[in-house]
Amino acid sequence: MGTLSVDRVKGRHMSDETMTVTIRDRSAESAWGSGPAKPATRKATISALCPVTNCGQRRGEPRGLNQCEDGAYYWVQVWQNPCGHVDMYNAVVEEARQRDGLGAVRVN
């Protein structure tokens, strides 16, 4: 399994604290049925806090996970938020895009 690295940066305000995780970005992949699966993963910098309104608790600690889809293997990070709220990858990708001001996606 790959090396797990989580970067946490604490700014002046608690909302400035971030974490960097590796996630799958399906929006950067070819449409289903257009050929062999080529999972796109990317590093995403997101808030270290749960994005649910009025929650704001810390997100869970990321851990590595090997995945396989249609014979294609890839590595991502997953986490469980102690507050119980679930982070969906598409929402995390969008949060990272807004935070980074990205129009395009950085694919690993």
State the helix count. Answer: 1
Strand order, biggest sheet?
1-2-3
Number of domains: 1
Q: Which runs of at least 5 residues are low in confidence (pLDDT < 50)? A: 1-14, 103-108
Largest sheet: 3 strands, antiparallel
Query: Which series of helices and strands comes N to C?
Result: EEEEEH
What is the arithmetic mean of pLDDT? Answer: 79
User: How large is the radius of gyration?
Assistant: 14 Å
Number of β-strand runs: 5
Terminal CA distance: 16 Å
- The helix fraction, in percent, is 10-25%
Overall 3D geometry? elongated
Strand content: 25-35%
Structural class: alpha+beta
Question: Can you offer a commentary on this structure?
Answer:
With 108 residues, this protein is α+β, with helices and mostly antiparallel strands. It has one domain. It has 1 helix and 5 strands; from the N terminus they run E-E-E-E-E-H. It has one helix at residues 89-100; strands at 8-9, 18-24, 41-47, 63-69, 72-78. The chain has a 3-stranded antiparallel sheet. The protein has a two-stranded antiparallel sheet with strand order 4-5. The longest helix is centred in the last third of the chain and has 12 residues, at 89-100. It is elongated, with a radius of gyration of 14 Å. The two termini are 16 Å apart. Mean pLDDT is 79; it is low at 1-14 and 103-108.
